[in-house]
């Protein structure tokens, strides 16, 4: 009987944790972002590509998405627009190296962005804001 109660408590806790999916082709960046997200008490789910994220089936449990704007196949902005078009928008933070052009496009979409290199505290503040506000409408 006690094992069932413990399992039920574990499942309740699991459903209250926020999953933050990270889409970045650069392994070292992906691992660093995963560490930062984990250190703040979120559940990180790293993906090498937007396609990997889309095929994973994890988007239904994703509280926040962190995606790179410079992906060669599908950029973070393209991924976000794909999610919106399919009816599955997720609060999203886009990372960019090229602030000028990317910032204009991201701001037009109403999304948050961070320029690389980024500060972990700045990233976590954005994650908290996105999760709290669920700010993802176009």
Give the key terms:
51% helix; globular; five-stranded parallel beta sheet; single chain; 19% strand; alpha/beta; 6 helices; Rossmann fold; 138 residues
CATH topology: Rossmann fold
C-alpha-based Rg, rounded: 15 Å
Shape: globular
With helices defined by DSSP (H or I, 4 residues minimum), what is the helix count? 6
Mean pLDDT across all residues, rounded?
82
Order of helices and strands: HEHEHEHEHEH
**The CATH C-level class name:** Alpha Beta
Domain Response regulatory: 19-131
Protein name: Response regulator
Modified residues (4-aspartylphosphate): 68
InterPro entries: Bact_response_regulator, CheY-like_superfamily, Sig_transdc_resp-reg_receiver
Structure summarized in a few sentences:
This protein is α/β, with parallel strands linked by helices. The chain has helices spanning 2-16, 27-39, 50-56, 76-85, 99-109, 120-133; strands spanning 19-23, 43-47, 62-68, 92-96, 112-115. 30% of the residues are buried.
Task: Explain the overall architecture.
- One of its GO terms (biological process) is phosphorelay signal transduction system.
- Residues 19-131 form the Response regulatory domain.
- This is Response regulator.
- The protein is of the alpha/beta class and 138 residues long.
- It is 51% helix and 19% strand.
- The protein contains 6 helices and 5 strands, in the order αβαβαβαβαβα.
- The protein has helices at residues 2-16, 27-39, 50-56, 76-85, 99-109, 120-133; strands spanning 19-23, 43-47, 62-68, 92-96, 112-115.
- Strands 2-1-3-4-5 form a 5-stranded parallel β-sheet, sandwiched between helices.
- The termini are far apart.
């Amino acid at each position: 009987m006690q094992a069932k109660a413990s399992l039920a408590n574990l499942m309740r806790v699991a459903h209250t944790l926020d999953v933050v999916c990270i889409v970045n082709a650069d392994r070292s960046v992906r691992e660093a972002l995963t560490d930062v997200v984990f250190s703040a008490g979120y559940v990180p789910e790293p993906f090498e590509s937007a396609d990997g994220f889309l095929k994973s089936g994890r988007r239904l449990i994703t509280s926040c998405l962190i995606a790179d704007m410079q992906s060669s196949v599908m950029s973070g902005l393209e991924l976000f627009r794909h999610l919106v078009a399919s009816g599955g928008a997720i609060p999203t933070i886009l990372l960019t190296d090229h602030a000028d052009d990317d910032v204009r496009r991201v701001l037009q979409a109403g999304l948050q962005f961070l320029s690389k290199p980024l500060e972990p505290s700045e990233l976590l503040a954005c994650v908290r804001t996105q999760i709290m506000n669920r700010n993802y409408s176009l």
